[in-house]
Structures are given as C-alpha cells and as structure tokens.
Amino acid sequence: MSTPIAKLVIADPRSDGYVIKSAWGLDWPMTTADRTRQLAGPYANAAFESPVWYRDGVIPLPELGAVMLDYSWGNSDMVLGSWIQNSSYWREVQPPGWGGMTWLKGYDGGADEYQALLSSFTIPKNASWGLRFLRSQPPADQIEVPYIALNMNALGTERFCIYLPQDGSGYPRLLYSSDSGANWSILDEFAQDEAVRWAAGAFEQPAWLSCLWVPDHLIIHLGDTGLRWIYYEPGLQIPQGHVLFESEGGQIAFHFDQLAFISPGAIELYNYISAPDFLNDEAADTVEILCQEPDGTEIAAEMVDDENGLYPSATLYSDGDRTPLLYEIQATRPAKHATPVTAVRFDNTDGDTGVFESCEFYCAKDQHGSWFKATLRTAGEYAFGGNEKAQLSVAFNAETPTYVEQVTGYLETPKLVRDAKQPGVIMLHLAAHDRFVRLKNKSAYLLPSFAGWSFQDAFTWLFHECAGIPEAHLTLDAGASEYIYDCPLQHLILQFDQTLKVDAVADALAKAAGRRWGVDRLGQIFTVALGTEVYDGTPEFILDDDTVTEDDFLYFVEIKRDIFALRNRVLCLGKDANGNDQIVSWRWTESMSDPNADAFIGDEWCEVIFAPDGGKPGLTAQFRGTELMQYQRLLKWQTNGKPALFPGHFVAVNVSDIDVAPGTVFKILEKHGTLNPEKGEFITEFMGAAL
What we know:
The chain is mainly β.
C-alpha cells in the first residue's frame, strides 16, 4: 500500500521582500470647506471653495472637482466667402465697440424668416468654440418660436446642436441626431430659469456663449452670467465637420471663433501635509496626474517642499486646439523595499531532519482561511521561532514522489514537547495560516481615493507599495486594466483613511471593479472578474461507484440541503454609472412560487448587500444570486488521497442511491485532509456546491 508523505519548507519571513519605509498617498481634491475665494474676470460672482486652486490661465470647475486651462477668443475678421448662404440677405459688418472686428449679419428680419450660414471649412474633432451674437427684437407678427442654433458636424450623420429659444418659452437645449438631421432628440436641457431669462433677454446688446469639450463632457458658459451648463456622457466625442449657424425671427449678427488654449495655467495648492515622522523618510515624492490629456496637451506636476511642509503644484499646457482637464491631484510616496532574504530555514522530508507524526490541513475557496497543523518528531535543532513562511506539500511514497502544494502560509509560534522515554527526541507542533493573517495586520497608511486609476494600477500599488509584496506574486485577470470608475468626475466612489488594513482596501477596490480576489495555494494573489469562472464541460474528477481502487477508495458520499440557509432574493445597494444611489434586485422566482422546484420555499427570503463603494451593483447582485442557487444542494464526500484536487475544481457525480441526478456537476468549495504516515492513511474530505 502506498504510504502518504509530506514535505514542509519553512523560509525566512522576509523571503518575499518587505517594506522598510512605508508608502503613502494623499488626495488634494478640488474643493475644501476651509476657504472661500472670489474669482476674477467673468467669474467674479461665482464664489467657490478652494485652497488657492485659482491662478491666472485656469478655470475652476467646482461642479466636477476640476480645473481646466483657460481659453482665449480670436479677434480675426469673419469673411462671408468662407460661408455658404441660404439667401442673399447676408453681409459683413463691424459692430461698434468691437475694435473694428468684422462679423456676419443676416438682415432679413421679417416674421418667421429662416436665416442660415454653412461653413465651407471644418472644425477639428472635439474642438472648443465660442459664439458672439447681437440680434434685434423679433417682429410683432412672429408666429414661430424665435431662436438661434449652432449645429456641429452639420453635414455628417452624427450631429450635435445647441438650440436657444429666444422668447422665454423653454430652456436652452443640447440636441442630437444620428440620421443626418432627419430626427432630433434632446440630450440635455439647461433647466434653470436664469438661463431662460438670459436667452430671452439677449436683444439689442451683445451676448456670447462658449462650448468647451473636455473628456466625457461638454461645458457651456452662458455669457457674463456665470452660468455653467455641463453635459456628461461617457466616451463623448464631437466629430470633425462643418458648422451650421441658424436663426429665425429678426435680424442677427454673429462672430464664430474656435477657442485657443495657448497660455499655460499654473495651479498651486497651499494645503500642506506633514507626514508623520515614521513615514517622512528619504524616498522621493511624486505626483500622480489623474486626468485624460488629449493629444497636444500636457500637464506637469511636482511636489514643492518649504518650511511648512509639502504641497503640490501643477501646470497645464496646450498646443492651442485642445484643453487638458485636471480633476484631482494625488501625491504619492513610494515605499522602500529591502532585498529579499532567500535562505530556507527548514526543509523536512520523510527520513530527513524530522519525521511527520501527523498532519492536517484545510483549503478554502480563494485560500481565505486555509491552514495546516503538523507534528514532527526530530532529534535535530530547529532555527525558527514563528512568523516564518511555510509551505506544506503532500505526495504518495514512490521512487520519485510528486509533491503537490496544499497550503502556503505563515507559522504561529512553534510548540515543542520532549519525550522523557526517548532522550533527545523532540515532538514539534506547528500551525500555519494563509497570507491573509499578515494582510489583515498590515496598515495601508494614507491612501488616495484611486479615482482615475485602473484597477490593475491601484491593486498593484496597494499590495506592492503598502504591503511589500513583489509584483511577481500578483496575478491579475486580463480585464484588470479597466478604469475603476465609469462615472462623472465629481462622484468619487472610494474613500479611504489611514485606519484601514490592506485586506479591507483590497475588498473595496475589487467590489468597485466587479471582481473578487484571493490567495492561491502557492501564495500568489489573484483577481477574477465576477461571473467569468465558467464550467467548460470537462470535470477534473468523476465521482462514481467504481472508485474502489487503493488510491480512489470512497468512504462516504452525502448530499446536504439546508433549506433555512437558502435565499431567493438579493438586494444590492450601490452606485450607478453616474455615481447616483442605485438598488439592484435579483430574484429566484421558482423558489418563491413553484412547488415542484427543488428549492421551493414559498416565501421571500432576502439577502441585502450594502455596497456604497460598489461601482457595479447589478453584476454583484447577479453573481451572488448565482452562488445562492448553487448552495441549494451541497455534496460532501470522503475519499483516499486526491492531493491534486482543490477548491475551484469541478466534480461530476455518478453515484447511485443518492438524491442527485447522474452527471450532476459540483464545484469544490472546501478541502480537509488528514495524514497519518505511520498508519499509511491519507483521508481527504471535500465539500462542493451543485452548479
């Protein structure tokens, strides 16, 4: 009969490297409550809270928690030859008070007369532009709503239009057409009464508006009113194309400009941080620029150190066509890592420095909660005292045994017992727990919100910089490069403070990204997107009545159903794509209403998941619901050996006389093994849930 054997490798606890000086990160958000500052220029009436965010050349956008580069208007003359007229009632004019600058005027002011100019030129994709206009009162016999409008990409299939009704009958609107203008839909309305009054009162006096594109947003300023209209749409793009200016009801003069972003804008935050001494080491400070930088723009940032402490400074640049948007500065300080210590403290195999008297181990899904216990009889010295990294492997005795790793963890303080009947012999009792036991004791220190980071970058920074775990020990799924958020900039989902431990921060990051994470039996930290672990149709093991060979001996099979542990509804309270509160519900209808269903309860039993940091509540609810359906039927069986079968593997069951259909597939959730080398026993018990 094959004898089970075990191998225990105990390494220096520093074998994976470690942190000797901690990393830290900190947000400097756009708005704070400690100071209110009046703006200069056209924003003089728009007070906002900021620790000196405003500088010349920079426009604050407190609604977004952002700043952007200021723009300049052109002073070039408009040329009628650059526009295609809908009638002959257009000419070049020079309105008084504009320095002799040439505008274009439509002077057919009759009632309900439509006037339009189409540019013969195109403006670039995602261009920012400004419109100055001066119009007369509409005729007294005007029937249709007087308006002005500007169409972007006017000859293309996908069109955008800013529409301003001029009689107080409605709000300014942003319109969209995907069929060359045959049908228009309302994307957004500027639902403020003051905006209506502004549009209706812009007669006999110059008025202006500007339309600025920044990633995912259109920002429209309505003249000197201080009114700012912000439209948000993930991935918003305005195509390159022609411009169509339209007007109806009265004479109209206008000047169209593509706005230029040519002067750098400097931002300095005199909001100091003095890191605690134990963090304030010699490592260099860096500044993370959390924004999207369109082609032709650049943002440079640095940490400035003076007698008060550290503060960030940033400068925005542009080539003149695009504007960078900066919505948060995050200062980070990298950790200092020591060189890993690779020495192995203790390598015990059967017949080497010690002999296994007994061994027991437990593996859970994701390894969270995995452990092992072992008793060794040894006459040698041991050179470890606890907290060492330990890896337990098991195999059957053979000329060249194949060891299979079961648990990688960290030791408790060893216990030893001396045998009075055998002088010099020590019974060494060891116990170890998986990596979670260390992660839950590691502080994350000062953390930024990770707004704008990819999940991969945030997860890697947390484990490498805060926990000291080498990047080589991280295995992230293919979709981990996705950004954590898909929501407006002003909605920061994640907020951390220095009291949190590494595992709690990892839980929040994974939840926000629609993922779960864990530690495998080799000690590798991994991530998996929810709902992607799909059974491929091939089980790792088939459990049937023929498993009666020496290595397949089946002790018992049991099907469990805990009806009171079932839940047939899940409510997940999280955030939608716009950062608003959202409740998503999952229902198991058959369990509520079908008496013939296996999991019939005839009632609603609900599980509530409160996930304020969760960015994908729908996915979270669906994933949890799928798990609950699996738990309606649990498989428990005990067999001989099976060192290579683990939680996460799939087992097909073809055992007679049990309450389960032949071929039913179960996913292993837990594994519990017991080794007694002296008796030649290796008994393993598995728990699995039906798919």
